[in-house]
Amino acid sequence: MELIIFLIIGALAGFAAGLFGVGGGTIIVPLLFIVFTQMDYSPDSIMHLALGTSLATIIVTSISSLMAHNKKGAVMWPVFKNLAPGLAIGCFLGAGIAGQISGLYLQLIVGVFLLWVAYKMFFGGKKQVVSHANDVAGSNTELPSKPKQLAAGGVIGIASAIFGIGGGSLTVPYLTRYGVVMQKAVGTSAACGLPIAVAGALGFMIFGMQQQVDVPNTVGFVHIYAFLGISIMSFFTAKLGAKVAHILSPELLKKCFAVLLTVVGCYFLYKGLV
Known about the structure:
Helix content is 78%, strand content 1%. By secondary structure, the protein is mainly α. The chain has a two-stranded antiparallel sheet with strand order 1-2. Strand 1 and strand 2 form a beta hairpin. It is globular and about 50 Å long.
């Protein structure tokens, strides 16, 4: 039964990864939180396990989503190369920071963050509307300098570890702010999810082992069975999500993304305050 549950979570998370470029973390974290709670795991470890396992599964979902978006020419590789080092270093450090924060505070932090991002996506600036010709050319002349992109990657990486996400919730708004249309922002975000996921998963494993987590079938703060079940299913459904992303209009896609974040954010605030 546990494996079936993890497969269902993987199907939903993979579709979200391809559709929104978020690595599925915004789906995986709350669902794993619910499942781990029902499995009577230690309350002090549940949120950390959800975050660590989420990042581990994003390794697989990001690869699948990346491949699908790259076929559509939606990955801005020069931007990815500038962001990747900061993303990896920041996410590893962020895992260590998350390990020192209580599960209750993590719930509240994640909830507030997701609501803020949803608000920005609904009512953000108009800069993401650029000419089609400029977008096709893959121009990123409006983006900051390489050092600033590297620094931005570090900040996104730290936040991604604390929130257990593939960075899409930050990477997508960051890119659209500087004139990148939604489809290319999503595609590039999918690529950025890979260094985030690898570094974050390693961090949660290492820091979790140092805290000697007493939960079966885990390596540090990563649940092995959940990782396998979610990864297997999400690899396939991420491709479907990516195809749908290129059918929808940029404005509709942005609103769907914001609605998803609003629902998940409210859930975490409710659980943290009740």
